[in-house]
Amino acid sequence: MRSGLNEISAIFEIDPMEILDFDDKQVFNNCKQDGYIGINHINLPEKLVLQYEETIQALKEQIQLLKLLQDK
Predict the structure, then answer these.
(1) How many Å apart are CA 50 and CA 54, to the nearest integer?
(2) The CA-based dihedral angle spanning residues 34, 40, 46, 48, taken in that order and rounded to the nearest 10 degrees
(3) Confidence at residue 32, expressed as pLDDT on a 0 to 100 scale
């Protein structure tokens, strides 16, 4: 078994321990299929949502500033 693991890790150019420690629950924990096939409920990290909202607000402020400068 070890030689097979070493061959696989060599093909993917990763450490054999990464294969042994692989946890599919971590990979797929943000993607849950519930009810209808083809509909995924994705839970975005709160930090990502906050960054997105901050970026939108900054862009809105830039637009307002540019409109003020254009009117002069």
Answers:
(1) 6
(2) 170
(3) 57
Residue 16 burial (C-beta neighbours within 10 Å; 0-12, 13-18, 19+): middle
pTM (two decimals): 0.40
Which secondary structure element, helix H or strand E, spans residue 8, and what is its range? helix 2-12
Contact partners, residue 8, CB within 8 Å, separation at least 6: 16, 19
- 5, 20 contact by CB (below 8 A): yes
pLDDT of residue 72: 75
**Can you give the C-alpha Rg of the chain in angstroms?**
23
**Amino acid at the residue 57:** Q
DSSP string, 17-60: HHHHT--HHHHHTTEEE-SSTT-EEE---HHHHHHHHHHHHHHH
Tokens of 39: 């509909």
